[in-house]
Design goal:
single chain; 143 residues; alpha+beta; 3-stranded antiparallel β-sheet; 2 helices; 9 strands; 41% strand
Amino acid sequence: MIAIINKINGDFQISETKTITRNSQFENFIDGITPKQIHDIQNGYKWIYLHEIKEEQLVFNVSLCFYENKIQTILFNFYGIYEKKPSWENFSREKEQKRLKIYEKWLTKNIGEQREFDWGMVNAYYDYKNETVGMGLRYNDSK
C-alpha cells in the first residue's frame, strides 16, 4: 500500500518494497526509486520528488527532504485517478479548502485523531504563500 504512515514508529511506505524510516539516509534511499527528481540545494538539504505514484484510486506526489543526508520531512498530496490533475489552470481557493478537509479526513482514517507522536508529527496544511494544500510528516531529531 502506498503512502501509509505507521503511527507506532513513523515509517512511511512508498511502495511494496520501499519504506522511509526516521533513520533513512539519502544515499541508501535513491537507488531503485522511480519516477524521481533530485534537487541538491547545496546547503545540506537534498530533496527527492516522486511524482504520480498510483495506488488504488489515488495518485500520490511525495517530496522527501533530507538534511545532512538524513530524512527530515515528507510532504505529500494526492488526487483521485478520475479527477483532473490539480494545476494553476484549474486552481481555486475553494477547491484547495475542500482538498484540505479531504486530507484531514484521510489522515484521521489512516492514523486516527492524534497528530503528535514520540517519533515526530503529521498534519494537513494550507500554504497561504503558495496557495496549496498538502500533508506533512516531520521526524524529531533522533540521536
